[in-house]
Specification:
3 domains, 588 residues, eight-stranded mixed barrel, binds calcium ion, binds ligand C2E, Alpha-Beta Plaits, Beta-Lactamase
Length: 588
């Protein structure tokens, strides 16, 4: 048999078969029982639940054969899927279609074969339930025929149940992401142009908080309320999917731009009012991502693109956003940077620290340096910390990075101290570092083991450290303080600047945000603000450091306003340690 017969609806059949591949070697107890039962009842050595795929057959369950698949061209079951009823070969050696078949002349030596196709509701045969003997046999009695049919039906029921379970989102009962993927892909295979919409409802972190504060049943109830409101707003024949814990989705077939936009508009309107769940009103943050899919194009990445535009729409507070290439480039770059960053931490030559001097504003003497991280990516070249630090902060990568910086800076401080240079080294730490007792332990340990003076090290952090776990953060800061380690509040004056809050922090200096410097020379109002901020900070007992001072004029202004220290290009740019040393010498 060289050519294998193909059913008329083969393309459609294949679509279904593809979605079954998770059942391959499923080791499902029900399937196992069914084939064991068949083998026992019919007294045959071999029984199979076989799926006829593209160019092979594979088994959901099998007894009596070791192979897990065979080429489709040899498969008896490939013939079985041609019919809707029993297919039986009483002696393969007598049958011209099979007498030279490798499965007949070789292992396992098939002589008798009987099978009933596994039929879907729309009568596509996915494969068959079959029994095989190595001896010829008479045809099945009507009773046995109906037994085999029942077994095939049971196997098919099982397939359907498994599939259903993998496609249903439990709490909402909606189809899930897998099912959306399957439906989108099958529409594209069928040559349809479609629009897919992902509707984000709340930030995942917010949902987490809801679960923490109000419990899982509440969050499940909330999602049900959202689902109902969505379903009411969508046209009746739309199928709603639950794509992630906080995101729904639907497909608009052949939808024109206007139709899709007005629909998204309506959804945004509908979700403008809070949802009341068990008496508690909750504000939804709706944002829709819209993606047009053309079967003629490469659509491999569609789900990622869709999700990223929905995410972006929600985060930026726009009602909807079409997938935009720029958005995607930014994400791809973020992905590349993050995936190379963990390697960079272990590479010898990618990361280094540069040091920028801080000078006493009156004497002009250098009092310390700020260590600033530099990364040279092997392909992309120098990457600014302003780009990669915020990315790392969103992941667990910030931890090894902060440790790397701390280790390097403390070694450097030790080295300088050994040579009689008592320069304080400041490093930047992230908010998440400060609520981690292990990180703080490690810093204290490093300071001790290098026997440097605690006051040779300063940690700079922004007010955002207090956003989460303020108690834990305070505890950690005091532990550092107890070791004599200095603490500075960075980018001061930008954020929340809750003064009463700040008084709780054991910091000794504040670093004015650079944005002040940018405006101060031109805007009179800013001048008054900066003057007031400096005064207030000093009254609260902080040393005030002006950052980003680029001109002599600004330097004088800072002096005049009573700043203690200045850091900026006017004094010096950040530079490698050796260069800093010669810079110092040249100033003497
Ligand atoms: P930052 O802590 O506010 O650091 C000061 C930034 O201003 C540095 O940028 C510095 O090079 C730059 N700068 C200094 N003087 C001037 C000036 O006169 N004019 C202008 N226009 N800029 C000046 P850099 O090195 O690109 O770092 C950017 C930010 O990245 C830092 O802002 C800090 O938030 C973060 N960062 C840098 N290194 C680290 C690190 O090791 N760990 C952490 N967590 N963050 C870091
Ligand atoms: Ca800083
Ligand atoms: Ca700063």
């Amino acid at each position: 048999m060289d050519v294998c017969p193909l059913p008329q609806n083969e393309a459609e059949r294949q679509n279904k078969v593809q979605s079954l591949r998770s059942l391959e070697n499923a080791e499902d107890e029900v399937f196992e029982k069914l084939v064991a039962l068949a083998s026992e009842y019919f007294e045959v050595p071999i029984a199979l639940v076989s799926i006829v795929d593209d160019n092979r057959q594979w088994f959901c369950a099998r007894v009596g054969v070791d192979v897990v698949e065979t080429p489709r061209r040899d498969a008896f079951c490939a013939h079985a899927v041609m019919a809707e009823t029993l297919f039986q070969v009483c002696d393969a050696l007598d049958d011209p279609r099979f007498r030279d078949n490798p499965l007949v002349v070789g292992e396992p030596g098939i002589r008798y074969y009987a099978s009933v196709p596994l039929l879907t509701e729309d009568r596509l045969a996915l494969g068959s339930f079959c029994i095989i003997d190595t001896k010829p046999r008479p045809p099945l009695s009507p009773r046995d025929e109906s037994m085999l049919e029942s077994l095939a039906q049971l196997a098919m029921l099982r397939i359907r149940n498994i599939r259903k379970a993998t496609f249903i989102d439990q709490p909402t009962g909606l189809y899930n992401r897998l099912r959306l993927e399957e439906d989108v892909e099958s529409a594209l295979r069928a040559g349809q142009r479609i629009t897919v919409v992902a509707a984000d409802m709340i930030a995942p972190a917010f949902l987490n908080d809801i679960v923490k504060v109000l419990g899982y049943p509440f969050s499940a109830a909330l999602m049900l309320h959202i689902k109902t409101r969505l379903q009411q707003a969508l046209p009746e024949d739309y199928l709603l999917y639950k794509v992630s814990p906080t995101r729904f989705g639907f497909i608009v077939e052949g939808g024109g731009r206007e139709a899709v936009e007005s629909l998204s508009h309506r959804l945004a309107d509908v979700f403008a009012a809070p949802i009341e769940c068990e008496g508690i009103p909750l504000q939804i943050r709706f944002g829709a991502g819209i993606l047009n899919l053309d079967p003629a194009l490469d659509n491999r990445d569609w789900l990622r693109l869709l999700v990223s535009s929905a995410d972006n729409a929600r985060e930026t507070g726009v009602r909807w956003r079409y997938y935009e290439a720029a958005l995607d480039h930014a994400q791809q770059r973020a992905f590349i940077l993050l995936s190379s960053l963990s390697k960079a931490v272990h590479a010898e030559d990618q990361l280094r620290l540069e040091y920028q001097p801080r000078v006493d504003v009156l004497s002009g003497r250098m009092v310390g340096v700020e260590g600033l991280l530099r990364w040279r990516h092997p392909q992309l070249g120098g990457i600014s910390p302003a780009e990669f630090i915020p990315l790392a902060e969103k992941t667990a990568l910030i931890r090894p990075l902060s440790l790397w910086v701390a280790e390097r800076a403390i070694e450097q401080a030790f080295e300088w101290q050994r040579r009689g240079l008592d320069w304080k080294v400041s490093i930047n730490v992230s908010a998440s570092d400060m609520d981690d007792a292990d990180f703080v332990d490690r810093i204290i340990e490093l300071v001790r083991s290098h026997q440097i003076d605690g006051s040779c090290l300063e940690l700079e952090f922004t007010e955002s450290v207090l956003m989460k776990n303020p108690e834990e953060v305070r505890r950690n800061l005091f532990r550092l303080r107890d070791q004599g380690i200095e603490l500075a509040i960075d980018d001061f004056g930008t954020g929340y600047s809750n003064w009463s809050y700040l008084r709780d922090l054991p910091a000794s200096s504040v670093k004015l945000d650079q944005s002040f410097m940018r405006n101060v020379q031109t805007e009179e109002r800013d001048q008054r603000v900066v003057g007031a901020v400096i005064q207030l900070a000093r009254q609260l007992g902080y040393r005030v450091v002006a950052e980003g001072v680029e001109t002599e004029e600004l330097y004088r202004l800072m002096q005049w306003w009573g700043c203690d220290e200045v850091q900026g290009y006017y004094v010096a740019r950040p530079m490698p340690a050796e260069q800093l040393e010669s810079w110092m010498q040249s100033r003497d």
